[in-house]
Design goal:
The protein is mainly α. The protein has helices at residues 5-36, 43-60, 66-88, 98-120, 146-168, 170-180, 182-187, 192-214, 224-239, 244-264, 271-283, and strands at 136-139, 142-145. It has a two-stranded antiparallel ribbon.
């Protein structure tokens, strides 16, 4: 089979659009890893809740505005859940070793999964893209979905917004300082506990944004968090633990290699991203960019 430039370019853009969803989720996970040093396995469950919440909001607000309302409300709902979890549970465990944190966040993910099943049931759900983003555009003679172009645009917006937050705002700078030396920040009279709470909520908010963005592109169902969290941890590992721009590079590697694998060797497409991960870790065991750990 001979592939034209249009087909390769279209599939490449599909890979970038999926990479942007991964980046939005991984940026939140990387932020939590960088500030709190918490490997949050429950991050995937919060992503799933964001997708289910998007479904509920679009049903409550049918019509052209439903998705746009959900894009705001669903992440805020996830942020509220994460704030409650952080204040009740996580804030007591930051000084524990990473293995205990892994086990704890895994338990939280199982609890959240059961709560999702109780609230939304086990049926598959779906969300339609807003009318403005339906249809496709022609790129080099091949049609490309408008919603995927929207996803490609959203990734940089989220990345720049998070960068501005961490480098230009007072709370962002305090979060970075707390990541380096939390004791010194506490000595200066700053309530480190609430700094950590805010950082945790921001990271989980991005998981909710990722869930809202992915809702029109997949079937919303129980278990959608499992694959995502595995991919997310691989991405933040090859990018550099806690490095947001590393998460972007890792997401692009993961998304594009999978997309091109579907085009060139569809039977083994799922293998390509993991091969890329292995190659990166063999060449750069600590990740492509500087790790904050």
């Amino acid at each position: 089979m001979t592939l034209g430039v249009a087909e390769v370019a279209s599939q490449f853009l599909v890979g970038i659009s999926r990479s942007m969803i991964l980046f939005v989720v991984c940026a939140g996970l990387s932020f939590i890893l960088g500030v709190l040093r918490v490997p949050n396995i429950a991050h995937g469950s919060l992503y799933m809740i964001g997708a289910f919440a998007t479904f509920s909001v679009t049903k409550f607000f049918p019509g052209t505005t439903g998705f746009w309302v959900a894009l705001v409300v669903a992440p805020l709902f996830v942020a509220l859940i994460s704030l409650i979890a952080e204040r009740v549970l996580f804030c007591h465990l930051y000084q524990r070793e990473h293995l205990m944190l892994l086990l704890f966040t895994f338990a939280v993910s199982l609890i959240l999964g059961d709560l999702v099943k109780i609230v939304w049931g086990a049926e598959y759900r779906s969300v339609s893209a807003p009318p403005l983003l339906k249809g496709s555009v022609s790129i080099l003679g091949a049609s490309f979905p408008r919603y995927n172009l929207f996803l490609i645009l959203m990734g940089p917006i989220v990345g720049v917004a998070l960068w501005l937050f961490t480098t230009k705002t007072k709370i962002g700078k305090i979060s970075r300082a707390a990541a380096v030396d939390r004791e010194m920040v506490g000595v200066l009279g700053i309530n480190v506990s609430w700094v950590f709470a805010f950082a945790f909520v921001i990271g989980c908010f991005l998981a909710g944004v990722g869930g809202a963005l992915v809702a029109p592109t997949v079937s919303i169902t129980l278990g959608m968090d499992h694959t995502l969290i595995i991919e997310a941890f691989l991405i933040v590992t090859i990018g550099g633990l806690g490095n947001m721009w590393g998460a972007l590079v890792g997401s692009l590697i993961f998304g594009v290699t999978h997309s091109l694998g579907v085009l060139f060797w569809p039977q083994f497409a799922i293998v390509f991203p993991y091969m890329a991960v292995v190659i990166v870790l063999l060449v750069r065991p600590k990740g492509l960019l500087k790790s904050v750990w």
